[in-house]
Design goal:
With 295 residues, the protein is an alpha/beta fold. The protein is built from eight helices and 13 strands. The strands form three sheets. It has an eight-stranded mixed sheet with strand order 3-1-6-7-10-11-12-13. Strands 2-4-5 form a three-stranded mixed sheet, with no helix packed on it. A two-stranded antiparallel ribbon has the order 8-9. A hairpin with a 5-residue loop joins strand 12 and strand 13 (213-218). The radius of gyration is 18 Å and the shape is globular.
Length: 295
């Protein structure tokens, strides 16, 4: 028997609405790794709700990570999500440097549907680019990929952003490959974009050290829920901690998100509260097929 691997999770903690830590902790725990949370902010409800109260935990985050390093702790993975301030990105980058043996998974939480999240400072995309430089894996959606590569004006007000790389058109394979190449130029070892409408399919696509585009297709669910990006990245992180091959990890994350979205549609709950992951977690406990393991 071996001890559980450890994942330091730098995300916000939102009370109402499943996202960030309330997704990462149960998912990664169900997959056999220990989640050690370092909250970046505490919110009464996630930011898709029209009204909420929040507490910026930048000072706490810095002291927490410094204390962990003083304790001599080492982590198998550092998994970052929502950063409330540019200074938090700087703190996270120092933590990356202090943990050279950890797998770094960066979910660059910046926006969705062509809109940058209203609570973020306008220079956050630039900060996230710096954090991506030290990542093993980054998992932006199309809006975040555009923000990271300059496809959306960082100084623009967070309103509708027409004419950007995140419009509703279908992408060609060449366009998607070019976008992945731009992301790889930021410095991560692997760049993965979620939720891309490609010609003839919807895909989660990635590029690694081989410089080639890879993709897993899926049948889209006719519904939208906050937190599904967090869900995907959390399953992917859990799968990597189970030593799964990267493509197998993407396939598992893709299938689980779709399964959970379909289940939530059947439950008929208000979309803003997120997906009913509590009732689908058992599927993540299944044994890993031998062919899915990395050699």
């Amino acid at each position: 028997m071996t001890a559980a691997k450890t994942v330091a999770a730098l995300h916000d903690l939102s009370g109402v609405g499943r996202c960030a830590l309330t997704v990462a902790i149960p998912v990664i725990s169900a997959m056999g790794a220990q989640v050690i949370p370092a909250p970046t902010a505490v919110l009464s409800a996630h930011t898709a709700f029209p009204d909420f109260v929040g507490l910026d935990l930048t000072d706490y985050l810095e002291k927490c990570l410094e204390k962990w390093c003083e304790m001599g702790l080492s982590f198998d993975c550092i998994y970052t999500g929502y950063m409330a301030t540019v200074r938090q990105e700087e703190i996270a980058r120092r933590f990356f440097d202090a943990q050279p043996g950890a797998v770094k998974v960066v979910d660059p939480v910046l926006g969705d549907d062509g809109v940058m999240y209203r609570a973020l400072p306008k220079d956050m995309p630039q900060a996230m680019r710096r954090l991506c430089r030290g990542a093993d894996v980054i998992t932006p959606n199309l809006t975040e990929a555009a923000l990271l590569t300059g496809g959306i004006c960082e100084s623009a007000a967070p309103d509708a952003l027409p004419g950007t790389k995140t419009d509703s058109r279908t992408y060609t394979a060449a366009e998607l490959e070019n976008l992945l190449t731009e992301l790889m130029e930021l410095g991560p070892k692997t760049a993965l974009i979620t939720g891309v409408p490609l010609e003839g399919a919807h895909v989660n696509a990635w590029m690694g050290g081989d410089g080639r585009m890879h993709a897993v297709d899926y049948v889209p669910v006719p519904a939208s829920f906050p937190g599904t990006g967090d869900l995907f990245a959390s399953v992917l992180t859990g799968a990597l901690m189970r030593d799964m091959d990267f493509e197998a990890a993407v396939r598992l994350a893709t299938a689980y998100v779709r399964q959970t979205m379909l289940h939530t549609v059947e439950c008929g709950t208000e979309p803003v509260y997120g997906v009913q992951l509590e009732q689908t977690l058992p599927s993540l406990l299944q044994p890993i097929p031998k062919e899915a393991l990395s050699e």
